[in-house]
């Protein structure tokens, strides 16, 4: 069967399983992705069984497990929530600053190393602040999403190595992928600030009332030890990079390349285990996002079938032929944002579209790879706050019933607003800065 027919079957199947995921919200479409990867890729496409198994993104799965395991200790014993409470308490006296404090809390917790998973810890606190401060809970969703995204891609955060793995899977070699991932981490900060500030004024966050909350209780001994381990892991990831920037040589380069969040997350989890800072069995059962792991990796297998048969090159060539270079970041922002409304950005959008950017670059296009990557990933994450997507569902799950009913359709419409902001930002050349 021809490559074109295989690609068509994958796209039709992908659309169908996304619809199944929307209708039957409790079913994991990752399993369907695995099944159809074998049916289309092996039974129809002729690939070997072990070739299909090889499409399972091992590096992404490993990163999700080890980082969630480590940060599970801080989540389980209340260290992260205690840290967020103190940040909010410190800003309680300035009403207009309350919605911004939610953004900064997500910004800081994500930047401490947990990455975009910081939304899980910040959203519940944010909804309480919105209720006390009498401002629109939509600002909590947007602040949590954009704040965590702004620093979630930094090299020492969980998203940094994940993005490196995605770029390597897309075609870049290890060194190029690592450099692009680091550049993306810093390039994300300003667009996320801009997007949130626009929404802050549109939703009149400056009219918030004064927050009334009690002084946070002191950290327990367990939380103090956990906080110390978090700081240790953060510094162990950050300092080699700082030393390399200040004094580039073979030793600092070696340390920069080998000190990563994966290794130090394992070390941190071992320290937490020996210090008895949490029950590792409970962490493995409750804090590692197994559902997300299966969804992300399973659908990635199906996407990889289409990529192996040339889908990325076909769409990439079409974009390259029909859009001028200066519009490419906006095109990727638009396509990535639309796709992310209905499916996981990490399991569907990135594996599908990042190879297109790589193909355009290696085929001689003058388009900025960094601008296209940044526009794609940020916009896909902006619309990822839609309740049909993973991040939106996670944030919505932490709200009370009244807030859920209020937010559901508004999260969809404001996902569109964020996507429009991002596309306009791209057309104005913001992602090229």
Topology:
Blueprint: H1 3-23, H2 29-44, H3 49-53, H4 58-76, H5 79-90, H6 98-114, H7 119-133, H8 137-152, H9 159-170, H10 174-187, H11 189-202, H12 221-246, H13 250-258, H14 261-274, H15 280-286, H16 290-308, H17 311-322, H18 328-340, H19 345-362, H20 369-383, H21 390-397, H22 401-427
Helix pairs in contact: 1-2, 1-16, 2-16, 4-9, 4-14, 4-15, 4-16, 5-6, 5-7, 6-7, 6-8, 7-8, 7-21, 8-11, 9-10, 9-19, 10-20, 12-13, 12-14, 16-19, 17-19, 18-19, 18-20, 18-22, 19-20, 20-22
Describe the structure.
The mean pLDDT is 83. With 433 residues, this protein is mainly α. It has 22 helices and no strands. The protein is globular and about 65 Å long. Helix 6 packs antiparallel against helix 7. The termini are far apart. Helices cover 76% and strands 0% of the residues.
Cα distance, first to last residue?
A: 45 Å
Q: Proportion of β residues?
A: under 5%
Uncertain segments are: none
Radius of gyration: 21 Å
> Number of DSSP strands?
0
Largest sheet: none
Q: What class would the helix/strand composition place it in?
A: mainly alpha
- Give the % helix: over 70%
| Net shape | globular
Number of helices: 22
Mean pLDDT: 83
Helix and strand pattern? HHHHHHHHHHHHHHHHHHHHHH
Could you write a compact summary of the structure shown?
The protein is mainly α. The protein contains 22 helices and no strands.
List descriptors.
single chain; about 425 residues; mainly alpha; 22 helices; globular
